[in-house]
Automatic annotation (TrEMBL), chains A, B:
Annotated residues for binding of substrate: T162, K188, T199, E280, N403, S408
Residue numbers annotated as active site: T199
GO MF term set: L-glutamate N-acetyltransferase activity; L-glutamate N-acetyltransferase activity, acting on acetyl-L-ornithine as donor
Protein name, entry field: Arginine biosynthesis bifunctional protein ArgJ
Length: 408, 408
């Protein structure tokens, strides 16, 4: 049923050509966990010496595989690592059965790959509260392990989709000291997308050399400016996981390297934007730039208040330059604002200033602007130096169709 | 256009018979502020000796009449008071023009009624950011003042509607020391409804005797358990105002009287429920009872997280007992929760316990329950004594229709 959704109008033209990351191999299979006629399990196996960093949902009702990954992240190892992900069932709120499924899956992967279970990470995404039929997965591990392929990343991206309407990938290469370092990542996510965590399932691979603590710090810092700045529907998943694996195969140490950090940021932001562009029912991609806030936290609070407001999102869906709803969302956010210092723009069009509509504002111009597919809404609070940018989509009949009518 | 909306399926059969409150008279008129073919301005005039309490939106972008009312509330007076409300235009984010409109309206009412301007309260509801054509209102004040009628409360309730599909009223009478004390209130509200303030426009009248500071305290306490516990769409208006006026005509002092407080609570809760029952696009009325939370604040945070979750609200619209989304909403709320102590019920049906679906749970029974129009979802967190109840409605195509397609 998931496959019947039309491709998002905001989708990129095609899946990008991603650089092959030496030290990572992928396999995927149609195990029939829940969906039929499509792949739903992917395995990634990482070469010895790979460092693994991860950030996970802060939900108090985290899924079993999330808790297991959190236990394992940061354990130093030379053995390499593996990541096993299934779609169709989130193995969330499944009590003791959930933990048992994770243990069975990790043991099967460990047995097949020769890795210790402490280096096998798993994730599950899909419906919440139903027992995971883990035998359907463990029965296929040997086959997965036998078909690992360094070029299998696109198929892996497809296998982890749920209500996604397109597979999401992003890659960058950066030359450091004459050596090329590559980054390639995949993501899934379309609904139950809200910030303040690592959003959805994201796996990023690089052949750079970085030790685990520094990789973890870098990942956390960049997550705050990328995945934690997007929202589709303000709802936070119980399964959100973002992992970054550095195989070291390039032999280039990127510790403290700004060019590498910038390239990694670009990959993460690209994937985050793709998640928004596949937001359930989305017809518009919206960037909300907040400046002049009392501080950075306030800027983000205002940005997310606008981005999560159902009235703002429905106005955007209706191509209505209803800036009064932006004022409303700023007012309700709880962060500092002075009505009479607000300055609001749609694109380059100055809409409101000095606590009222701008004298030069022409609604026809704004209405014309709102017809675009990609929109920028800028708000200056006139209070200080705090700024933040967040990204969201509109709220349409498509969102109701997808979420009122069936379970993903 | 507002009048073209069909009456909510959750609406009461008819407007209730409200007790006449001695010392209050109403008038309403079709002034053409924005709408045509319907009344849009109401005036209430209160007898000398009336005490007036009020609670207002905490939005940082409050409308001009809200700021004016906040200035005036609590000023003791023997002169009586007046309340003038228009629909069609919120006079919000209208800069200096907004404050001027409020002053002009209050002066016109003061001139006609003989009251000082400090005792004239006003409110405006409707579109944000457009200048209020206040002359259309001030031109009709003399006519309003000449047609005041103690029986005009229903017409007043109709005049303040915007996207409301039915007029909202509630009344109670309570006998204290052999004397009857009456309470009658009206409300408007349908969208941009979220808690943490007095919600929308609400006017309640009683012939009880209560001094202003005690009336204010009582109102604030009861608001926290009624209007501040409802949500339609998590969006907070810039104009929310709730005023309670005690004329004293019954000569019954109700200070510290529990029966009066209970009756007032009932009127407020009745009106609050009517606002939810007229939630934009609503097809289900949902009570969410949270118990066993670490404390009262946590209980309310969890309740509102569930009530505001688009995924929970769309599942309810689809009559899907998708309790996994309840788990998700609890997990994301930020308040304390232990996944494995959660207990969730739909009506009397135990759905989840001990971190997983209940062994006795049958989805068919829950699916049958979800077809009802009025639903109760109960969550016990198993942590402490904190409890709270909140009320909301579902999220349907109707909400998108109303908010994406035109401005209210």
């Amino acid at each position: 049923m998931v496959n019947t959704l039309p491709r998002s109008p905001l989708a990129p033209a095609s899946f990008p050509d991603l650089p092959v990351i030496e030290g990572v191999r992928f396999a995927s299979v149609a195990a029939g966990v829940r969906y039929t006629g499509r792949t739903d399990v992917m395995l990634a196996v990482l070469a010895p010496g790979t460092t693994v960093a991860g950030v996970f949902t802060r939900s108090a009702t985290r899924a079993a595989p999330v808790l297991d990954c959190q236990d394992k992240i940061g354990q130093a190892a030379d053995e390499g690592a593996a990541i096993l992900v299934n779609s169709g069932n989130a193995n969330a709120f499944t009590g003791r059965h959930g933990a048992k499924s994770v243990a069975e899956i990790c043991k099967a992967v460990a047995d097949a790959t020769g890795l210790p279970t402490t280096r096998v990470f798993s994730a599950s995404t899909g419906v919440i509260g139903e027992p995971l039929p883990h035998e359907r997965i463990t029965d296929r591990i040997a086959e997965l392990n036998a078909t690992l392929d360094a070029g299998g990343i696109k198929a892996a991206a497809e296998a982890i989709m749920t209500t996604d309407t397109f597979a999401k990938g992003a890659g960058r290469q950066v030359v450091i000291d004459g050596q090329t370092v590559s980054i390639a990542g995949i993501a899934k996510g379309s609904g139950m997308i809200a910030p303040d965590m690592a959003t959805m399932l994201v796996y990023i691979f690089t052949d750079a050399v970085v030790d685990q603590p520094r990789l973890q710090t870098l990942l956390a810092d960049l997550t705050d400016r990328t995945f934690n700045c997007i929202t589709v529907d303000s709802d936070t998943s119980t399964s959100d996981s973002l992992m970054l694996c550095a195989t070291g195969a390039s032999q280039v140490d990127v510790t403290q390297n700004a060019a590498f950090a910038a390239a990694l940021h670009d990959v993460m932001l690209d994937l985050a934007h793709q998640v928004v562009r596949d937001g359930e029912g989305a017809s518009k991609f919206v960037e909300i730039r907040v400046t002049g806030a009392a501080n950075t936290d306030d800027a983000k609070v205002h940005g997310l208040s606008i981005a999560n407001s159902p009235l703002v999102k429905t106005a955007i869906a209706g191509e209505d330059p209803n800036w009064g709803r932006i004022v409303m969302a700023i007012g309700k956010s709880g962060a500092s604002a002075d009505r009479d210092r607000l300055n609001i723009r749609f694109g380059d069009i100055l809409v409101a200033e000095n606590g009222w509509v701008s004298p030069d504002y022409r609604e026809e111009a704004a209405a014309e602007y709102m017809k675009r597919q990609d929109l920028v809404i800028s708000v200056d609070l006139g209070l200080g130096d705090g700024q933040a940018t967040v990204w969201t989509c509109d709220l349409t009949h498509g969102y109701i169709d997808i979420n009122a009518d069936y379970r993903s």
